[in-house]
Amino acid sequence: MDFSEQSSKLKPNRLLKVFKVIIIVIVILLILLAGLAFYGWRYVTKELKPVAASEQVVRFTIPTGSNPTQISDILEENGLIRNSSMFWYYLKYTKEGIQFKAGTYEMKPGLKNKEIIDHLNKGDIVKVEVMRFTIPEGFNVEQIAAKLSTQKLVDKTAFIATTDSDRSYSCGWTADIPSDKAIKHRLEGYLYPDTYEMKKDSTTEDIIERMLCEWDNKLEQLPADWQTQLEKQGLSFHELLTLASLVEREVVVEEERAKVAGVIYNRLKDKMPLQIDATVQYLFDESKERLYEKDLLIESPYNTYLHTGLPPGPIASPSLASIKAALYPEVTKFLFYVTKKDGTSGHLFAETFAQHKKNIAKSNAKK
């Protein structure tokens, strides 16, 4: 027999066998893939099913700036979904998650994925009851405590005691407060005067901390070089608040803040007593309509008629405008000023005592 003929007859048979093997392998692979797909689909379907229903309300918070991955993790941690990874893929597949709103939510376990997504898209956050209060510029600690107490937000005595404690706070400039027993109230001047909205169940400590922290926000509105200017003036932040509080209590006319601040700097430079009535008024529980000679002789480190330099600390909470005036005073040679008696609440300024006496006479003539 010719071997070449035999070989040619065997080739089709071998090819047929190889083809059959390939077909069998492909079929097996398809069966395996189908099985994997089936079990994979079962797994995904199971992981995307709602968790067991419950009447127990779950409260959770979505922080501002959270992305879909972080939100998915929060939902799983709070037992509202089975698998954060599967939920994230579901969000991606359905093109959801971009419109989710930050805030505090309340949901019951057992919600479908679509229901959870609807709540987050709508921003169905918990409505928190708030309290609102306004602290006027120039109020001191005792006035602040009285106002908050009148609104039944704090106990007046407890509020004052807390401001006098050595408690540490997370923000503000309280680290600058000197350990001086002469200071009447430790946080005097450090509670920023403004309108606040806080949760209704806020504690005395919460309120104080919120007011302290507001300084961090407000100081950002000052010129960028304000701290350099503070060093240039040779003041600590505590002294800045003190000087600004004097301006706040002395000035009514906005345009005069920097000018009065300039007078204070001039008198400090010349080592003259500041003789500011507001520092004497600070010694009384309630401001007097008029100060008498005997009042000006009351011994106190706050009495700027008896002592030169700044008082030990602020006498009130100054506004940002007074802070700015204390940082950037108007440069003049004025050493004196007297309140006009014409109802404008403005002042007459003088460089000499002789001129000051004339201004006093001029002011009194307009009563």
UniProtKB/TrEMBL annotation:
Catalytic activity from the UniProt record: a peptidoglycan chain = a peptidoglycan chain with N-acetyl-1,6-anhydromuramyl-[peptide] at the reducing end + a peptidoglycan chain with N-acetylglucosamine at the non-reducing end
Enzyme class: lyase
Highest taxon listed in the record's lineage: Bacteria
GO molecular function: lytic endotransglycosylase activity
Chain coiled-coil ranges: none
Stored InterPro entries: MLTG-like
Cell compartments where the protein resides: Cell membrane
Keywords annotated in UniProt: Cell membrane, Cell wall biogenesis/degradation, Lyase, Membrane, Transmembrane, Transmembrane helix
Residue spans crossing the bilayer: 21-41
EC number: 4.2.2.29
GO process annotations (BP): cell wall organization; peptidoglycan biosynthetic process
Membrane topology value: Single-pass membrane protein
Site (Important for catalytic activity): 250
Annotated GO CC locations: plasma membrane
Role this protein plays: Functions as a peptidoglycan terminase that cleaves nascent peptidoglycan strands endolytically to terminate their elongation.
Family: Belongs to the transglycosylase MltG family.
The protein, known as: Endolytic murein transglycosylase
